[in-house]
Structure formats: structure tokens, C-alpha cells
Specification:
Radius of gyration of chain B: 16 Å
Largest interface: A-B, 30 and 32 residues
Distance between the termini of chain A: 10 Å
Radius of gyration of chain A: 15 Å
Oligomer: heterodimer
Largest sheet of chain B: 6 strands, antiparallel
Order of helices and strands of chain A: EEHHEEEE
Strand content of chain A: 35-45%
Helix content of chain A: 10-25%
Order of helices and strands of chain B: EHHHEEEEE
Number of strands of chain A: 6
């Protein structure tokens, strides 16, 4: 079970990811999107989910038992190739329902100028 | 770029059909980095109690996002997008599963258009509470 003290804690990303045109093009192509000037609206998940995984695994949760419950994106500025993005993840809530642990992680994607370009909320269900 | 259509609250926007098959799941896994075997390996999926391989929830949501981007004129006009993953999309081998996506206009203001979205496979909703906010 997740240590309740971690709720409200923010894990600051240590490494930035430079968005490549190839990465946007591959993600867009997989979704049938032809516009690759900007990333598709769900592209932030490629950064935020990996970080959530490492944060929650290091906090003792079993990623093999995870199911995605719900997802929200707020996009302040579309993600483009060349951006250097750092991801800061906050465990917003954690509760246990019928033995399943339900954790919501908020990930702030921040560019090199410290602007929050997108926020991703993932609610993850760790099955009992 | 903005939408060409003058939309009103309550308008039902044209539906679009997407195909989900095993090859599409592999492409999405490679593009997104989500290589969980439940989305590619039938034996593994069944070993963890699933009926068969299931689509990444984020793949289904991504296709709905493509629909929203198209309505908005560009992904650059999508401000918010959210959904609940209510039912897995089961993808048997050698089958093209059809995903039908549609939208209703929920609110129109100067700064934003709110859409209520629907995504169905085999006449069953696979996403709940799917909503987007786009720039008019």
C-alpha cells in the first residue's frame, strides 16, 4: 500500500526530455493524425505516464496490477518539436476501495522557460 | 485556424469511424512507449484473466483526441480533454474492431466550445464522461 505521507508530495523531474519531430510524427501516425506541426492532445501521456510509473513503483506499488481509471489533460500551450520538457508529478490522492488502491497523479509538464505547457491527471487503479 | 461551422448548443456533430486491430496496437505501443504485454500478447492477456488482448485505454482516448483535433481545426486548438475508461476494447487476432466516435455541443462561448464525446465499440460505450474544450 502507498505510504499515506506521500499524498501531496511532488516528485520533481530530474531530467528533461527534448521533444523530437520523429516522436510527434510517430505518435500522430499511430492515431491517424496528419498534422504534425504540434503534438496530438494526448501526447503528454508519453512523458507523464513513465514518470508516474517510476514514482509509484519506487513507492511500492505493483505496476503489473495497474489499470488506467481515468485521464484528464489541460493544455496551455501545444507541445512542439524542440521543446525541452521536465515533468513534476504530485500524488494528489490515494484511497482503497474493495481492496483496490486508487491513486491520482498530477503531472505538470514544464518547458525550459518554466512555463507549465500541459497538466496531465492520471487515475490509476492497482488491483488487489 | 478556427472551425468553419457555426455550432449551437445541442448540435450532434458527424460521427467518425476508426479501426482498432493488433497492428494498430503495436504501432501505438511503439509510438507511446507503453509496451504492456496485455496490449499485444494474447497468451499473456489471458494469463492475467482478460478475455483477450485489449487496446490501451490511451489509444482509444487518442483516437477520440484525433476526432476532437479534426473538429477543432488543429490539435493546437484543444485546451482540455478528459475521459474515464469504463470498458476495455477487446481486440481478437485478425479482427478489425470498429470504434465509432461522435460529439454533441454542450456549451458555446467566446473563449471556448465544450463538447460531450461518445466512443462506442459493438454498440457499447467504452469511455465515460468524455469531454473536450476547444478554442472556437
Amino acid at each position: 500500500m502507498l505510504n499515506p505521507d506521500l499524498v501531496g508530495h511532488t516528485f520533481t523531474g530530474v531530467e528533461s526530455t527534448t521533444i523530437t519531430p520523429e516522436s510527434i510524427a510517430a505518435f500522430a501516425a499511430a492515431l491517424g493524425e496528419s498534422n504534425i506541426d504540434v503534438a496530438p492532445p494526448t501526447y503528454a501521456i508519453t512523458i507523464s505516464l513513465e514518470q508516474s510509473q517510476s514514482v509509484l513503483q519506487s513507492s511500492g506499488l505493483n505496476w503489473d496490477r495497474v489499470v488506467h481509471g481515468d485521464q484528464k489533460f489541460v493544455i496551455n500551450e501545444p507541445i512542439r518539436a524542440g521543446m525541452k520538457i521536465t515533468c513534476n508529478s504530485t500524488i494528489e490522492s490515494a484511497r482503497v476501495v474493495a481492496g483496490n488502491e486508487i491513486v491520482t497523479v498530477r503531472s505538470d509538464l514544464v518547458d525550459a522557460a518554466s512555463t507549465v505547457v500541459a497538466i496531465s491527471w492520471s487515475t490509476l487503479v492497482f488491483r488487489a | 485556424m478556427s472551425n468553419v461551422a457555426p455550432w449551437n448548443v445541442g448540435d450532434a456533430l458527424p460521427a467518425k469511424r476508426y479501426v482498432i486491430n493488433r497492428a494498430a496496437l503495436v504501432a501505438y505501443a511503439n509510438a507511446s512507449g507503453d509496451q504492456n504485454p496485455i496490449h499485444q500478447n494474447e497468451e499473456f492477456a489471458k494469463s492475467v484473466g482478460l478475455e483477450n488482448v485489449i487496446a490501451h485505454g490511451m489509444f482509444t482516448m487518442g483516437l477520440v483526441g484525433q476526432y476532437v483535433s479534426e473538429l477543432a481545426g488543429s490539435s493546437a486548438n484543444v485546451q482540455e480533454f478528459s475521459a474515464r475508461f469504463t470498458k476495455p476494447v477487446v481486440v481478437p487476432a485478425d479482427v478489425d474492431v470498429e470504434l465509432i466516435v461522435s460529439a454533441n455541443v454542450a456549451e458555446v462561448s467566446d473563449g471556448a466550445i465544450r463538447l460531450d464525446l461518445s466512443a462506442e465499440c459493438n454498440e457499447a460505450k467504452v469511455l465515460g464522461m468524455a469531454k473536450a474544450v476547444i478554442r472556437p
